[in-house]
Write a structure and sequence with these properties.
- The chain has 4 helices and 9 strands; from the N terminus they run ααβββββββββαα.
- By secondary structure, the protein is of the alpha+beta class.
- It has 2 domains: 93 residues, no CATH class; 80 residues, Immunoglobulin-like (Sandwich), CATH 2.60.40.
- Helix 3 runs antiparallel to helix 4.
- The longest helix is centred in the C-terminal third of the chain and has 23 residues.
- The two termini are 31 Å apart.
């Protein structure tokens, strides 16, 4: 069964480090996993619109209107990492941007994200497609696991090895794994790259 520790151990293996049994271990590797695994996981989730992490949501309307610029605000659920699209329930227009969410034909509308809210000028209801936080590793695709392990290896390389060459190799491996994962995920639907290629290194 896949677990956060088993994914972390893939990264450790690529770095030539010993595997851990738990993030509660006293080793430096385990402490790095405890402190960084969740953040790195969320970062990789944001990179691509992974099919297992995309969810369609009807967010709750907020009673208080925005101070200016928009007429309505909607609450983004805490599980949402990144909002991909926002639509209203209109079936008119016939735009090529319309897509079916199972709630009737929808058309994209102007919107802004500010903090944990979506601001729009729509009337009562909106729908969003979003990347959400998935913490159960048994729901991950094999390609996501490989990309996540590579990103972990790149981010923890310097604290463990002090070897910038190895870190560069792990960064390149991550980009290859991510590209392969995006292509694989794209065969099941459109794959959207939603974040930059920059790596947040753990110092």
């Amino acid at each position: 069964m896949t677990s956060p520790v088993s994914i972390f151990n893939i990264a450790l293996g690529w770095l030539g480090e010993s595997a851990i049994t738990s993030f509660a271990d006293s080793s430096d590797s385990a402490q790095l996993g405890k402190n960084n695994y969740n953040d790195i996981r969320d970062t990789v989730l944001e990179e691509v619109s992974w099919t297992f992490a995309v969810k369609r949501i009807e967010p709750a309307r907020i009673a208080t209107k925005p101070l200016y610029g928009f007429s309505a605000a909607f609450q983004i659920p805490p599980e949402v990492l990144r909002v991909l699209t926002v639509s209203d329930a209109s079936t008119s227009g016939g735009s090529a941007d319309r897509y079916d969410t199972g709630q009737g034909g929808e058309s994209k509308i102007p919107w802004n994200r500010e903090g944990d809210k979506i601001l729009t000028n729509t009337a009562e209801r909106i729908y969003m497609r979003a990347i959400v936080r998935i913490t159960d590793p048994n729901k991950y695709s094999p390609s996501f696991i490989q990309a996540l392990a590579a990103r972990i290896a790149a981010d923890i390389c310097i604290p463990l090895t002090q070897d910038e060459k190895v870190q560069t190799n792990m960064e390149a491996l991550y980009q290859r794994k991510l590209a392969a994962a995006g292509t694989s995920d794209g065969r099941q639907g459109r794959s959207e790259r939603t974040r930059s290629n920059s790596l947040t290194r753990v110092r």
